[in-house]
Amino acid sequence: MPHINLLPWREETQRLRQQQYFSILTFLALISFLVVFLISQFYQAKIDGQRARNQFLTNEIKVLDARIAEIKTLEEKKKDLIQRMTLIEQLQKSRNVGTQVLDEIAKIVPSGVYIVKLEKQGNELLIQGKSESNNHLANMIREIQSSNLLADAELESITNSSKSSKLLSDFKMSLRIQGLLDSEQISNAGGR
Q1: pLDDT < 70 stretches in the chain
Q2: TM spans, by residue (predicted)?
Q3: Using an 8 Å Cβ cutoff, are 158 and 170 in contact?
Q4: Which of residues 93, 110, 139 is at a domain's end?
Q5: Per-residue b or e along 116-129, where b marks 16 or more CB atoms closer than 10 Å to that residue's CB
Q6: pTM of structure
Q7: Beta strands in 26-148 (DSSP E)
């Protein structure tokens, strides 16, 4: 007679397979969760490192911006000091300008030209005088052009008045004193 097994072996194997399936599924879920967690931690560490580097660079940029601002103020102070030194140097040069101008005029005025009035306005010099000849005035203008102290000679007028001697003509001339600061330049430079 055949042997009949009435035990529920199929259900038992099915239950064991199902239990293995769920344990493998749980193991795979845990492994995949662990892999995802490790990958996210790796990328989070990279992001945190980049943020730290960005913060460091931001702090260094702030320090450098402060230094740049300090350099700009130092450059402005340097420019102001150079301007003041230039002003002092020019004032030093123009300290004895009156004596130098009179000495230079004595050198450039040829014989036959007589100065009646000499007037200084800023760095302009206005000369009124008498001349025996226009050639003498032309020679005087040439001497002014070759002068180191005087420049821009401009003959404003030559007139022959009937009151004075017919040999002498009246003239007016203006010229500029080189390297001399006028009062407006001094007040502008000194006010800074």
Answers
A1: 1, 5-7, 161-166, 179-192
A2: 21-43
A3: yes
A4: 93
A5: eeeeeeebebebeb
A6: 0.48
A7: 113-121, 124-131
